[in-house]
Amino acid sequence: MSTILKVENLIKYYKTGEAVVKAVDNTNLEIIRGEFTVIVGRSGSGKSTLLHLIGGLDRPDSGRVIMDGQDIFSMKEDQLARLRRNKIGFIFQDYNLIPSLTVWENVVLPLGLDKKKVRKDKIMEILSKIGMEDRKDARPDTLSGGQKQRTAIARALAASPAIILADEPTGNLDSKTELEVMSLLKKCVNEFGQTLVMITHDETIAQMADKVIYIEDGKVVTVS
Asked: What are the two backbone dihedrals, phi and then psi, of residue 211, each rounded to the nearest 5 degrees?
């Protein structure tokens, strides 16, 4: 299996008053194409900062993130924004849906921003797989938490990104809905041949992954 993403000597420190918080502290890791990787750590361990750096949402103090052979932080801001739209699908804990848009419109929005053709058959296939085809004209305020997260998953899959990054995607869901959403996400990723990197503090979710990376104080401590 080939490497899709490589993190080399990544550092991100924050100053809070006199103290220095080492959010990401000389971190190295490798993500294999087609695998489901979970990054596990307690609150404050640096896992969210690491995910934001991997996705190019934040810039490191030093170090490199190589995605599909490209050093993303050597890019100009507009190039990096284009890479995020083309190669990365994001799934957030708070869904990040636009309230005034329907499920369908939220899902195809990234395609429109990138002037890509919307393949209606493909979008309907995704909505069907996540059980949302009957709610495609609904607005987010009429959806349950699980349905909102399903919509966010569909949006992440729609542009066929090289990698999907998920930040505590089940954090706002009850345990039953969490397992449903996780099973669905794993199934979709397998069927569409995606690479998934997810951060969580939930060991139950970690057991579903191909690889588990444990983070403490901004450092990778074990990989299993």
From this structure: -140, 140
The pLDDT, as a whole number, for residue 191 is 85
| Fold of the domain built from segment(s) 36-59+75-223 | Rossmann fold (3.40.50)
> What is the reported pTM?
0.92
Give the residue-averaged pLDDT of 36-64.
94
| Segment 171-174 long-range contacts (CB within 8 Å, at least 24 positions apart) | 171/93, 172/93, 172/94, 172/145, 173/145, 173/146, 173/149, 174/145
**pLDDT band with cut points at 50, 70 and 90 for residue 66:** very high
DSSP category for residue 131 = T
Q: How far apart are CA 13 and CA 97, in angstroms?
A: 30
Domain ranges of the chain: 36-59+75-223
